[in-house]
Amino acid sequence: MNIIGPKAYIHLDRLKQNLWNIRKQIGDRHLLCVVKADGYGHGATVIARAIAREPGVSFAVFVFEEALELRQAGITNEILIFSRLQKSWLEDAARLNLVVSASAMGDLELLQDVQGRIGKCPRFHVKFDTGMTRLGFDLADSDSVFGFLNANKSLPAAGIYSHFATADEGDLSYAHTQLHAFQQVVKEGQEAGLSFQYIHCSNSGAVLNLSGAYFNMVRVGMLLYGAAPSHEVTMDVDVEPVMSFCGPIVNIRRRVQAGTQVSYGGVYTTVNETNIAVIQTGFADGFPRPWYERGFVSYKGLEYKIAGRACMDQFMVDFGDVEPEEGEEVLIFGKRGHDHLPVERIAQETGTTTYVLLTGIHGRTEHITLP
Length: 371
Ligand SMILES: Cc1ncc(COP(=O)(O)O)c(C=O)c1O
Description:
It contains 11 helices and 19 strands. It is an alpha/beta fold. The chain binds pyridoxal-5'-phosphate.
């Protein structure tokens, strides 16, 4: 059945091309594809299945349940869980061959404990906080961390990593300070006699801005989905939007008189006689509500102004003299057919980020995968 409502078209050909273009930039390093938050709103299993067999690809998620979903979908690649360790799922993580993050002494103790109890411990990456002030060991604790790992050689410490706070900004001075701190702690680990299979701290911003931070693994989310992590980066890696977010025209009010109010609050009034189309997509589906103030949609290659406040389930578009057909779709963001409306533009003009907009796609939105 063809359900009328918002659609997120997922262009898998672009996803693969984006991955290959990122690969050209980072060489043969391991690529940790970040598919947390349902693959940034694109559908984690669809995304993971499409690229699982590309060489050198593993996946990162935030919570255990996201990793479980991938395993249940038949994904056998390595999967790293970013979140704080929880005792409740540690045994399952070991059984499912998931890789976890250790970011506090308590985490290392939990790992030691699970190994003692079941004779098995999930492989893990140690995370150091170099400037996010979020998860991660303090740099000052590096001696204790490396000492613990040396004293417990049977614990499978497979990686070491950190996360940048400002790698996608114009001013990279703080990112360079973080990078230097990370290089230092990696060196200390090596001097303590430890060798980590994976060393990583780059995200999309660093892929674009900090080629000296690639180490032997690069984590990439936003670039893979074909959008810029911020408006301050230069997009030297060629990528195309993987999602096209569209809404169907479900009603056309023809020849609406000049001076007619449209939508809640009456903040939009028609200037001339015009055709107003009703689009069945609302902020409950992920439509970026503040965009109505200055926003537009794309239809057959042309831009048409959004008329009045976006509602929970619908919004209106002023088509002027043009008469679209009921059942046709307008493009809200992405790139489809003759229409191109970058999500970056909406992010910048509404004071938000591409991350917020893409992960906000939900509600009644139907995901349609295109090969
Ligand atoms: C720890 C970590 N690494 C990598 C990423 C991927 O970042 P990006 O989407 O900017 O590539 C994220 C995303 O927020 C993250 O939290």
